[in-house]
Amino acid sequence: MGAYIIRRIGQAIIxxxxxxxxxxxxxxxxPADPARIIAGxxxxxxxxxxxxxxxxxxxxxxxxxxxxxxxxxxGNLGTSYIFHTSVMSQISSRMGPTAELAxxxxxxxxxxxxxxxxxxxxxANKVRDVVISALALIGISLPVYWLGLLxxxxxxxxxxxxxxxxxxxxxxLILPSITYGITGAAYYMRLLxxxxxxxxxxxxxxxxxxxxxxxxRVIYRHxxxxxxxxxxxxxxxxxxxxxAGVVLIEETFNWNGMGMLAYQAIGNQDIPVIMGTVLLLxxxxxxxxxxxxxxxxxxxxxxxxx
Amino acid sequence: MSKVLESTDLQNxxxxxxxxxEFKVDEQYYKxxxxxxxxxxxxxxxxxxxxxxxxxxxxxxxxxxxxxxxxKVSGQIIYQGRDLLKLTENQMRQxxxxxxxxxxxxxxxxxxxxxxxxxxxxxxxxxHRGMSASRARKxxxxxxxRVGIPRAEQIVDEYPHQLSGGMRQxxxxxxxMACNPSLLIADEPTTALDxxxxxxxxxxxxxxxxxxxxxxxxxxxxLGVVAETCxxxxxxxxxxxxxxxxxxxxxxxxQHPYTRGLLNSIPKLTGERKxxxxxxxxxxxxxxxxxxxxFAPRCPxxxxxxxxxxxxxxxxxxxxxxxxxxxxxxx
Lengths: 306, 331
Description:
The complex is a heterodimer of chains A (306) and B (331). With 306 residues, chain A is mainly alpha-helical. Chain A has a domain at 90-270: MetI-like (MetI-like fold, Orthogonal Bundle), CATH 1.10.3720.10. Chain A is built from 13 helices and no strands. Chain A is globular and about 85 Å long. Chain B is α/β, with parallel strands linked by helices and 331 residues long. Helix content of chain B is 33%, strand content 23%. Chain A: Keywords: Cell membrane, Membrane, Transmembrane, Transmembrane helix, Transport. Chain A: Pfam families: BPD_transp_1 (PF00528), BPD_transp_1_N (PF19300). Chain A: It is found in: Cell membrane.
């Protein structure tokens, strides 16, 4: 197991280097000129050129990349072109609220999605299943910002139970989490339902019934655990991407998180910040994939790493 | 159950009467099992033999009431004097795994991959004997020893994928026999196993059944298995029993052309070597069942009467009956 994790971390580093190269190349392929953006539309070519030299943008791209990666090794993600503060400090100030929001959204998705998945699998093809599946389809189709505004209007403005957006503890977290949960839960529900239906046809489920196990026991003891693998995979990737920011939710609920940071950085052509957020997203996705692979081993004994 | 049960019902562990099973295909019901009758006496082993699709597995599943909806099952399945078809689901659960144990064809997939062997055997004891987890574990180790698994103390904590097919089938037998059932239903228990393992598994089943006085309903397509294991045999064809009797009588004096065909299609080790004779044609599909004798389209002796009428089971000799007009009038 230990050797496996070390090997996987080694692989993860290679993946991250690959991602950094691609992200770097893509950003420099964009026709916009950061020096011009920083200098403003009225600056003289000399000024723009000076900025370019200061930022090292005149160097060949591979040299720029190596310089960037060299700094990265020292924990330096560069300085924002626009705010002139370190990217690292910007990211770390957003990380707390983002982690809070990501966890809230994720848990809400699971709380809504998993029980509904089990329920619809147990009652597949009955009216209950059809109704819930139809509602889930509506849930998937709802734009989060629209649902978010609706909930804000209802429970923040009309009936004033929740704050009208902003950051600051669990009280502020509830509406955005519910909004995301409603739209995201349907994926979990459908995934779990289809896997459970598949597992229910397995021979060992028949064995469990032949032992005299109740339907409840069959579902929770024998079907569910076998049906969890794809859900765990999805949940891992999901939380990984959520931690990199939930732009639409953050925008709707005025939540100062990573999503907003990335969104604004893209608008500003603030390349160091964009790079930082992209790399962070990659780290989270890779990290949670690794965690998912380790969790597999606990859920399914056939998966063991040596 | 207001009906006064006949005395034979009480003597037999299981008495299946006029069993009909219908499956829904494209909004229409088709009969897969058509008026099947058989009984099993205490300690007796009955072989239910036939080709794939003849309704033998479905019959065994219907005894456990494990067929999925939409399926119609009618008739009577009288186990120890109770009609299983009339029990509630809760009552039926007390029967499954407790009074009737079941072994399936596929040992590789019949055990839950995520639970330890001990827990899978112990579950039956937990459910029906109300044992504590630690008692059930001890009992599971005992069961593993009884089914001839070496290193039982270690195997109890292993997972199914760590065992071979033969070992897994032994575990399945341990699960089925854990509560000392009066009836063991074995649905093709050796089909998926190597020939050398097959004999061991059959021997084990026979031995355990003998120790506990358990009756066995053995579902198989393999007449060799029947010859080795069973006391009596019922041959099924296209949802009907076409011949039944003691193993000795059926093997010595097969009457129904289908049974004869089956016997001719197994290779013999002794005597003159001949070409194997397959039975020509195929089993009729559920949707196109012949009106008369269902074997008539494939039967070398078919007469006009066979196409128009369905023969009943005619008594050939004491305890040996055949569903064929050739035996009409006790020929």
